[in-house]
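RETRY 2/3 - previous attempt timed out on the joint model. Re-submitting the same 777-residue input unchanged.
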Amino acid sequence: MESASENYPRQIRQEWQDCWPRALALWSPYVKLHDPSWCLTSEQEKNERLLASFAMIRLHDHTVVISIKEVIERHLENFALEILAHEIGHHVYAPADISDQARMIARMRKGLPGKEHLAPFIANLYTDLLINDRLVRSHKLRFAEIMQRLSGPADPLWTLYMRIAEILWSVKKGVLAKGTMDDKLEGDAQLGARLIRNYAKDWLEGSGRFAALCLSYVLPDEAAVAQQNQKAWSDMAGAASGGFPEGLSEMDASEQNGSLHPAFEETGDEPADGHEATETVPEESPQQPGGGQYRQPYEYGQILKALGLDLNDHEIAVKYYRERALPFLIPFPAIEKPQNAEPLREGSEIWDTGSSIENIDWVQSAIKSPYLIPGYTIIEPVYGTSEGSLPEKTPVDLDLYVDCSGSMPNPQIAISYLTLAGAIISLSALRAGSKVQATLWSGTNQFESTDGFVRDEDQILKILTGYLGGGTAFPIHKLRDTYADRPPHAVNVHILVISDDGVTTILKNDEKGNKGADISQKALEKAGAGGTMVLNLYQDWHKYKQLVHLSKQGWNIHRITDWTELVAFAKQFSRQYYGK
Amino acid sequence: MENNLQQEGPALEYLLRRLSECPPEFVISAHDKTAVAPAAVVSDLLQDLGGHLLTPGSAAPFQLEPSGKNRNYINIILIACWLLHDSWFRQQQRFAENAYNFLRNGLDELSKRITADKFIYDPDRREELVRLVLQALGLRPKGESPEQAADRLKTLDSIERERVIREAKKAEERAKELREAMARQAAIEAASKMPRE
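RETRY 2/3 succeeded.
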């Protein structure tokens, strides 16, 4: 039989569970969230990744996690309504979703130069104040008591934070805020309280300003004491895990100037001589995209890491360039062929993961082998066509060669328009049903390539976002091998090379002594859908005799003078050669 | 200040609501053609609070032309009159003298800092005016201790607030200059360490 003490956590859990609908109703009678995940043991806390804090949220699955064990240890059993309503507030008010959480981190990083890594911590303080202030004002919940219980020793930031709470909730000075309070701190606390109220409806706009307010308090020792105190209720630590913020590569219109210290902001209190007073409470402004202002991959990655997402630099770069390419995606060029009649099965070929799963011929595969292994024993049918009278559009495959020598930017650090253009064209090709072979090249034997022509978006982007940064030597052997044994009935390919004057190394001999010019000529002929070289050149390409030679082979040479022109080129590419 | 707040007055929320319901006629705008005589309003108020009508001498501070800088001051006087005309104060019939002193001396500094309509629409400024009025009458909000009332008024005090914000601004300006100087120094040092090509 269970003793009373063993039963106590379950009793508290039941009480808190009973309180959950009331906590939801404090925000709105229409708010729906599934029941919290209750942790009664350390094992359960570990499974939920609840570390140090007694509560946390996960934004992607709208979950609230509460450690009943920690609640009891911290003697917070009687604050069920406050704590549950607070956690719900993170889901429905601030930050509410992972994209706004990411945008808040981005703004706060700008307000914390040199201490950008503290943005998640400051964001947690800021959103806590916003939520608690609304709940205190609307429902008179007892957050001052909770903060008093959880508060430890004070450092300047913690004193400021507590003093802001005192001002907001009319708590006597010194009840929550301990430590030295000089005029500067008092002034900052006044500004902080005003900011919390003024930006309550547009909290994202105020986030950078709040960070700027905190900057001078985190500079000396990163507010180590405040960080320690806040750990007890660090409910946002893993909030973003499992999700991903969309649209983060583009900045909000007001992000650049959104980290002004509140002391330098007009209050709107002052009367204007002889004029009518104007209300200057900030207008509610929906977060419009920044009108073409994009952040760099490095900053994009730092924000994702600050959100706690477990991604390496390469994975981050893939996501960055995919997102940047999306607005430019167009149907990939298609050439017209006479329409086929009824498809005729001509044979079979090996099915691999790049092909659609519904193409698999399961019966033939099972006959071939009882063990189904992609790329080895799984079969897909090959259909032939008989020509009809109406034209049919057939997409051409893309063979893409992107220069990644030392003169090119590292796409994982700064925006690389070569990578972006490659991503735009490749993703357009995939969208149109084509296959893509992407090759990143630098010096001799320095190249990375997809496993032939594939439809695997991740594999292609992973190649394009890599970085070699060595010498310059076009991978002639790759071009040679790609077209050496290409059957005549294979899908036509357009060869696209993005480079600078280093592309002329294509005319050198390969490792077998074959002339690069011959390889280039044959590749172009066998590809069947032309070839384009888009090159960043200082002078007219006609002044390079090697390029003139390549042009005579049939290569279309397209000169650009700035890498940013590549984006326009990527859009123009299909229109120029294939039209609609 | 705490000694001035020994007696309990009405509840804070009650007076805040009254202030938020201040009729628009009490705020004159630049476009208003009707002339409001603040001295007449104050005089009627004082009589209702148990005092006497203003004499030409005591009315002089309120004989103001409603133009330019005066307009905001007049508006604040009128708003304070609306608050003081609440039935709770009128029933006491003992606040006329304190109210006169407050209206004559207590609003000038505020009028230089805060636009009058803030005392109706801004929650903090509304609370500040209510507390200032109560303090002037020797009262504290119902349910608050003298210490609590004094602390809250100090927190809301616009003049004190402006002073500490000015201090915070100065400190931030100094810190900003320091940070920029350090960033410049770091950039110079980084440049000097770059390999020469």
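Confidence is low (pLDDT under 50) at residues 274-287 of chain A. Closing ticket.
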